[in-house]
Write a structure and sequence with these properties.
alpha/beta, TIM Barrel, 8-stranded parallel beta barrel, two-stranded antiparallel ribbon, binds flavin mononucleotide
């Protein structure tokens, strides 16, 4: 099943293997424009049915890490246009993952020195990389966030919509809204972080209000079937606290996305392996609620593991991350049952071609 095509009303993908979004920090922080090395990296991996780009910040304040290529201005869009042209020429399809880091950030990463944007004033108990006096990146506690005002929340929605519009100008086939992994949209969902008492805090509908406003604004720019939304149920990364009612929370969102005929719901099983557990009730509940393409991600390394969940009907597509870093020809290797090369975690974030574009093919 993994090698069969997948289609919705807007797109046809040549196989069901998705390259998962992976931040690699290879752009210059000053302009955040994708460079030739980034073009080559994605071109090498165009056999995936769909590539989802690394998280691309929708504004300067949305940045939470050094050297992430972004998508808020025309120069950045022009850089991404080179990437999408190379991927298309190699027969692939590509979404941009649009991203706001929120409190997982530091004032030193923002051109104007602004504090991280927060759902609340609660700081993230995690670190990011901040340049020292000599520009050398050093692990540093995330900064003290400032609570977004209602006016600023409107601005965030507009930033996502603008970035989605630029993504289409840059030739992307669609966009994924990064609603997972403890970043801004996930911070609003999390009741332990979001202590607001306005329309964006309290009830589930209020805590998901910002995400759904972003979904509606982005879908208006690119078309609902070209939108993916990423969630990480049970994920505790970036200082998140366990959702008190995951079996209520995520199916509620899935129903909202289904009503809007959103193309894809992307689920990442961070840390615990609920996604492959046939006895776990979340995947069946999501399948009942959402009739678009469900993408499952986290720890998939064999065709048998991918096919098991596809055949069960719990997912339509499988996203694979780390194996794609070290195997540019991953699709071919899986198809021919060839051994996979090991990845080097030391070169995941930042640096040059080493550990980025120099992994060999079969
Ligand atoms: C180097 C690296 C960078 C990542 N960056 C992102 C990102 O920008 N956005 C995102 O949603 N997930 C990100 N992730 C998570 C991956 O998309 C994926 O969910 C995770 O690696 C699990 O899949 P795997 O077991 O196939 O690697 C990143 C993971 C890695 C290893």
């Amino acid at each position: 099943m993994l090698f069969s095509s997948y289609a919705n009303a807007a797109l046809t993908l040549s196989n069901r293997i998705v390259m998962a979004p992976m931040t690699r920090c290879r752009a210059s922080h000053a302009d955040a424009v994708p460079n030739d090395m980034i073009v080559e990296y994605y071109r090498q991996r165009a056999d995936a049915g769909l590539i989802i780009s690394e998280g691309v910040p929708v504004s300067d304040r949305a940045r939470g890490y050094l050297n992430t290529p972004a998508l808020w201005n025309d120069a950045q869009a022009a850089g991404w246009a080179q990437v999408t042209a190379a991927v298309h020429a190699a027969g692939g399809k590509m979404f941009a993952q649009i991203w706001h880091c929120g409190r997982v950030s530091h004032a030193a990463l923002h051109a104007d020195g602004s504090a991280p944007a927060g759902a609340s004033k609660q700081a993230a108990a995690t670190q990011t990389m901040v340049p020292d006096a000599n520009g050398k990146p050093v692990p540093t506690d995330c900064g003290q966030p400032e609570t977004l005002s209602l006016q600023e929340i409107k601005g965030v929605v507009a930033e996502f919509a603008h970035s989605a519009k630029l993504a289409m100008q840059a030739g992307f086939d669609g966009v994924e809204i990064h609603g997972a992994n403890g970043y801004l949209l996930d911070q609003f969902r999390c009741p332990a972080v979001n202590n607001r008492n306005d329309a964006y805090g309290g009830s589930l509908a209020n805590r998901y209000r910002l995400l759904l406003e972003v979904v509606d604004a982005v879908a208006a720019e690119v078309g609902a079937q070209r939108v993916a939304v990423r969630q990480s149920p049970y994920g505790l990364g970036n200082g998140m606290v366990a959702d008190p009612e995951p079996l209520k929370t995520y199916p509620w969102l899935a129903r909202e996305l289904n009503q809007r005929e959103i193309g894809f719901l992307h689920l990442y099983c961070q840390m615990t392996d609920w996604i492959r557990d046939a006895g776990h009730s979340l995947m069946p509940a999501l399948r009942d609620a959402f009739h678009g393409g469900i993408i499952a991600c986290g720890g998939f390394k064999t065709v048998a593991a991918c096919d098991a969940i596809l055949q069960r009907g719990h997912a339509d597509l499988i996203a694979i991350g780390k194996p794609f870093i070290s195997n540019p020809d991953l699709v071919e290797r899986l198809r021919s049952d060839a051994p996979l090369s090991k990845w080097d975690t030391a070169t995941f974030y930042g640096g040059g071609a080493k550990g980025y574009t120099d992994y060999g093919t079969l």
